[in-house]
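Lab notebook, bench 4. The sequencing result for the construct came back, and we need a structural model before the next group meeting so we can plan mutations. Quick request posted to the team channel:

Model the 3D structure of this chain.
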Amino acid sequence: MKIKNKEKTIIYVNFAPYENAGGILDFLKKKFKYVALFSFSFHRLNKRLENNKLKVYFSGKKVDSKNLFDFQVPEKLIFLFLPIRSILIFLQIIFYTIYLTYTYGGFENYFTVNAFTAWTGNILKKTGFVKKTIFWVYDYYPPFHENKTIVFMRWLYWQFDKWATKSDMLVFLNSRIVKLRKEIGVLSDRDRYKIIPIGTTNKSKRGSRNLKPNSKIKLVFLGVMKKSQGLNLIFECSNQIATTFPNLEINIIGDGPDLEYFKSNGEKTNLKIKYHGYPSDNDIDEILGKSHIGIATYIPNQENVSYYGDPSKIKGYLSFGLPVITTNVFEFSKEIKSFNAGVLIGYKKENMIKAITKIVNNYSFYRSGAKKLAKKYYYKNLYPNMFKPY
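Done. Here's the predicted structure in C-alpha cell form:
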C-alpha cells in the first residue's frame, strides 16, 4: 500500500517499555495516518514484552511487523557492550527505513526521544529518506559516576547529543534541561524552545474511590527495577510498615537489572509483596485501578539522571487519580506539592511511614489533588503543540 499524503507519516523511535509513556504512541496513531514504530530494549526485561520490533500502523491499526535483531548481554556488561548495540540499532534503523521507503513510498517525519537515535534521524534526513526530524529531549546524563565505564559512555552519548540538537525541531520535557544546555553553551541563550512534558491519560474513574477504616491498603510501584528508582526505601522500613499497617500490600510492576536483588530483600520482610513483571497493558491498568498510592522515591544524588527528566511513572499514577509518595528530585515535584497530589519526602525510611499515614488519613483530599493535576497534564491537550511550527 503506497502512501499518498506523506505529511501524515512518521517514523517513531523509542525504547521499551516507554513507547507509549504518557499516551504518546496513542496520540501519534491518531494524528498520523501511518506510524512506523521502532522499539528497542536496553535492559533485559520481562519476556512478555515485545522488544526490538518494527511495527507499522495504518489509521491506528497494525498492518506490518518485523522482528529486529536483539543483542542481549549480561546486565553487568551492558554498558561495556553499548557501542556494539548502538551500531546494531543504527544499522537496523537505516536498513528498515529503506524497506519502509520501497514498501510504502517513504515517511516524511522522524520523531525520537534519544540523542543517538536523533542523530540517526539527521543522517536519514541528509540522505533524503525523511524530510523533518523532531527530537523530544528526554534526558541529560551527568558526566560523573562511580563506575568509570558509565562515565565514558555518558561522555560518548553527549557527543551525539550535540549533533542531535541540529534536528529541525527541538522539544524539551522541562525548563531544567533547557537551562542546563544553555549554561554549557549547547543551546543559544537567546532562543526559546518548546516545553512539552509527558502527559497523563484519563483513567481516574477506574481508580479506587476511597479508603475506609480497616480496608486493605494497596501501594504500587511501576517501572524498571533499578536501585536508582529508590524502591529500597520501602524495603528498609518494610517491617515497620507491616506492623503499622497490617492490611497493607505493595504491588510491583516491572522488571530490570535489580529485580533479583529486590526479590531477595522481599523474602526477608513481613510486608506483603506481589511481583507482576510486565503483564499486558490491560492487566497493568487493572492493578493501578485497584491501587491507592503510587511510589516514586528516586534517590536524590548527582549521579541520578532522573533529576533532569520527567516522571512517566508518576504521570501513570496520576492518570488513575492515585496520590504519590515521591522525593524532591524532579522539577515536576513542585506541581505535586502545589496541587496536594501526594507527599514529598526526604530519602529516609521514617519519612515513608509518615507519608503513608498522612495520605491514608486524608485520602479523599490527596486523591482530589491527584485528579486535578492529571487533568492539567492531559496528553491530548499537551501533544498537539509538539508538531506545530515555532
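The chain has two domains: 6-196, 204-376.
Will bring this to the meeting.
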